[in-house]
Amino acid sequence: MRGGRFREDLFFRLNVVNLVLPPLRERREEIPELAAAFARRFAVHYSRPISLPSESLLRSFERYAFPGNVRELENMMKRIVVLETEEPILREIARYDGGVHGSSRLRQLIEAIEATAGEMPLREVGRVVALEAERATIGRVLNQTNWNRKQAALLLGVSYKTLLQKIKNCALSQG
């Protein structure tokens, strides 16, 4: 209205009831119920067996920011029902968590490197940042799978032996 792109009289005609609905990330307690409802609806719609979200998936959802809000959760549950597996969604969330979104240590490291620009050779900067990003990603996936290394390796797309070596190189420990 202020910019002259919307008529004021039309706004007041349409603005009968004003509902404020916070984003899903601010209503996390609703996620399990919504996910289950979407799973049931899509199972019926696509004639698939009803499979409620696993504890692992629900734990992942607790940490996920849901930038696409409820529609994103709905689409995730639709893919799970249609594909009859949660694995692609778990991998997607693990990649999101492993990025700069989820790692305050990685952000701090990048800020420290920026503050001392030129003091560290570029090759070393790349190595240090890559190691921290890898450590954050592996740590999140291990926590997400309750340190089930076989499942974590599957989610990360690496062999079990490679994951064990990376856990050692990143100095990760359970608990």
Task: Please summarize what this structure is.
This protein has about 180 residues and is mainly alpha-helical. The protein is built from 9 helices and no strands.
Note down, in words, how this protein is organized.
The protein has 9 helices and no strands. The chain has 175 residues and is mainly alpha-helical. It has 2 domains: 27-85, Helicase, Ruva Protein, domain 3; 102-175, Arc Repressor Mutant, subunit A (Orthogonal Bundle). Helix 3 (55-63) packs parallel to helix 5 and helix 7 packs across helix 8 (149-156). The chain starts with 7 loop residues before the first helix and ends in a 6-residue tail after the last helix.
Entry keywords:
Arc Repressor Mutant, subunit A, 63% helix, flat, 175 residues, Helicase, Ruva Protein, domain 3, mainly alpha
What topology emerges from the helices and strands here?
Layout: H1 8-14, H2 31-45, H3 55-63, H4 69-83, H5 87-98, H6 104-115, H7 122-144, H8 149-156, H9 160-169
CATH secondary-structure class of the largest domain: Mainly Alpha
- The low-confidence runs, each spanning 5 or more residues with pLDDT under 50, are 98-102
Using only C-alpha atoms, the radius of gyration works out to 21 Å
**Beta-strand proportion:** under 5%
Structural classification: mainly alpha
Q: Quick check: average pLDDT?
A: 86
What do we call the CATH topology of the largest domain? Arc Repressor Mutant, subunit A
Query: Separation of termini?
Result: 55 Å
How many strand elements?
A: 0
Name of the CATH homologous superfamily of the largest domain: Homeodomain-like
- State the CATH architecture of the largest domain: Orthogonal Bundle
Count the DSSP helices. 9
Give the number of domains: 2
Can you give the helix content as a percent range? 55-70%
Question: Would you list the SSEs in sequence order as H and E?
Answer: HHHHHHHHH
